[in-house]
Design goal:
Layout (H helix, E strand, L loop, with lengths): L2 E3 L12 E5 L2 H4 L1 E10 L3 E3 L8 E8 L2 E6 L8 E5 L3 E6 L4 E6 L3 E10 L1 H10 L9 H4 L9 E4 L2 H10 L10 H15 L9 H20 L8 H8 L3 H12 L3 H19 L4 H7 L5 H12 L3 H7 L7
Antiparallel strand pairs: 1-2, 2-3, 3-10, 4-9, 5-8, 5-10, 6-7, 6-9, 8-11
Length: about 325
């Protein structure tokens, strides 16, 4: 049964509700929740997770910051920045776990919470090598576990996209959602079989994509051309373009545009830049093109953005 929950700490963000696809954890041993919202203010997800559980955050879009705070065991504290299409695997310890979502972005993500007993039983029924970082969790030794940040693979993105289709919210039986949980786990916790000849090819493709993303993010004002990106990645421009779209779901030019607009929003929110300065800082030469693209992405014109975000941009 699909149910709705609201574990958001920010009362100003009434659209930031989680949709439970499968659970609860106490009865089923696993809990799958989907989040899909846009907020004009930084939004915190409250810590409602069970100590000792394994938590998987599958971040489809929107930037997040995850941190753990413990006064008794400060050596266990951590702070992670989670960007577009990243996976975080961590064990909930006896400490406060915080997730902060950035303002003025579309946030699409899934959270899987898994109990030790459920995962142990599953692996006994269907034996398969798991990633070495997960072994301490199964041995109920959370102090030896560390957060893992990894990129999406092509198949994982496909499963996530299915779970965000509107007609899957209430029409699908629980067994369907359970099968999707198993698919998600197979792409996040299990070691790939050695005879999967596509594994090395996929890893190389992901490395190339991450290299392109990093290069673009560092040069928003004067981004490298497709030819330069391809040369740095060691492949042809046409192959890089196809691969980037296949694995990320968007073209390189769309990804660049989104990063430019996100950076411009950050500058405007700081109150230190006016619209013209923010547009030029991220490589826009046409103010009208910038304003149109900004309004399409954030739902408001850049001149009013500072006021909606709680700051006043200088003009």
């Amino acid at each position: 049964m699909v149910t709705e929950m609201n574990p958001i700490n920010d009362k100003r963000s009434d659209t930031a509700r989680g949709l439970i696809f499968y659970g609860p954890l106490a009865e089923r041993g696993v809990l799958l929740t989907r989040y899909q919202f846009r907020t004009s203010h930084p939004t915190s997800i409250s810590d409602h997770y069970q100590n000792g559980s394994l938590i998987l955050l599958l971040n489809i879009s929107g930037n997040a910051y995850i941190s753990s705070h413990s006064k008794k065991e400060p050596e266990q504290n951590f702070h992670l920045q989670v960007s577009f299409q990243k996976i975080v695997s961590l064990v909930k310890k006896n400490a406060l776990l915080l997730m902060q979502r950035e303002a003025d972005q579309k946030h699409h993500f899934l959270i899987l919470e898994i109990s030790t007993n459920w995962l142990s039983s599953l692996l006994k029924t269907y034996p398969h090598p798991i990633k070495k970082e997960i072994i301490p969790f199964l041995k109920q030794n959370p102090k030896k576990t560390k957060p893992i940040l990894s990129p999406f693979c092509l198949h994982l993105r496909s499963v996530c996209e299915e779970l965000f289709l509107p007609h899957h919210q209430k029409e699908r039986p629980e067994l369907w959602f359970y099968s999707k949980i198993l698919e998600l786990l197979s792409h996040t916790l299990l070691e790939p079989l050695e005879d999967f000849c596509t594994h090395r090819k996929e890893r190389l493709a992901l490395e190339r994509i991450e290299s392109v993303k990093k290069n673009l993010a560092q040069n928003l004002e004067n981004p490298p051309s497709l030819q330069e990106c391809a040369r740095n990645a060691g492949c042809s421009p046409s192959y890089l373009s196809r691969t980037f779209t296949l694995y990320t779901g968007m073209t390189i030019s769309r990804y660049l545009r989104n990063r430019r607009l996100e950076r411009a929003a950050t500058l405007l929110r700081s109150g230190k830049y006016n619209v013209t300065e923010a547009a030029m800082a991220v490589g826009y030469s046409s103010l009208s093109h910038f304003s149109k693209a900004f309004a399409e992405m954030f739902g408001s014109c850049p001149c009013a953005f500072g006021f909606y975000s709680g700051t006043s941009s200088k003009e």
